[in-house]
Structures are given as C-alpha cells and as structure tokens.
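ESCALATION

Customer reports they have been waiting on this structure for their group meeting. Please prioritize. Original submission:
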Amino acid sequence: MIRRKLRATLPSPDSIRGHRWLQWCAPVLSHPRLWHLHRRAVALGVAIGLVTGLVPGPVQMLLAALVAIPLRANIPAAVFTTLYTNPLTFVPLYLLAYQIGRLVTGEAAPPVLPPEAAFSWESLRQALPDFFAWIGSMGGTLLVGLAVQCTVFAVAGYTLTMVTWRLAVTHAWRTRHARRARAAG
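Update from on-call: job pushed to the front of the queue and completed.
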C-alpha cells in the first residue's frame, strides 16, 4: 500500500529521462534500480542521503544523486533523505560532530560556538564567510567527528530502513494471510 502511494506521487523514470534538461544524461538514468522501490536500493539511498546531508552548502541533493547513480541506489530516497539537515538542524549537528571528534581525539579545547548574527545588510553579506571561518576553526577535530557521525548515521539509516521494510512486509503478509483465512473459513 505504501509502495503504491509512493509510486503515484513520485515522478516516473520515463518522465525524468524525458525531461528536456535531463535528456543528455538519459542513458545513465535508465538503470531500473535507480528508481525501483526495492528494499536494498532504498536502504542504500537513505544511507547516502544521511552522509551527503552533512555536506555544507547547497549541493547536498545533487551530490546525493551523483553518488547514488554508480552505487545503483534509489535516487529519490537519497535526495529526500538529505532534507534532515536544514538551517535549524545544521549547527547542532556540526556541534555534535565536534563533540564526537573531541571524544575520539582526546582534545580538551572548549566547545567552539557559531558566530553571532546581527541583523544588518553588512552582516548578511558577511554571514557565509563567517560560517566557513567558524567551521575551519574547528579543524581536524570536526573532520574526525564528521567521519564518525557520517558512519554511524549511514549504518543506522541502512539498518533501520531494512528492519522497518521487513516489519512492514511481514505485517502486510500476516494481514493478507488472516484476511484470506477469514474469507475461506
């Protein structure tokens, strides 16, 4: 039932391959596993989306799709999963990664806070360089924390998707079996 609803709402592979801006990459996008709602392909897509969601900048969805293509993961699952990072969750996730990096590396530096934002035109123009300077100030500790965090997120997302899919299929099978038994008896 969920698969039918998803198939109805997601664009079809043919419509994506026939899109005028995507026709040049139609041969690459023609592999059926990139669009099929298969348990392993969706789970891999979720794992890819969780990893690429932590990439700073506006390229998360594009990167998720580009990584999903050679790995034959479900592209819609990979792209959709990147949405867990947004302006409200990005800074806490990076602070968590920094804290994880501190635990792994044993660094005793105090936590680095993001730069304060003031509401003026000058501060808006300076916000992006300040943000990247903040991330750079955390250095290797942040990179180690991000590597650990990405690994844990990917493994947890893959496993949770596989288990949830299995439970949903088992529940649907038992419901269908019980319905048939009532109809026959």
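Sent to customer with the following note: The chain has a mean pLDDT of 82.
Escalation resolved.
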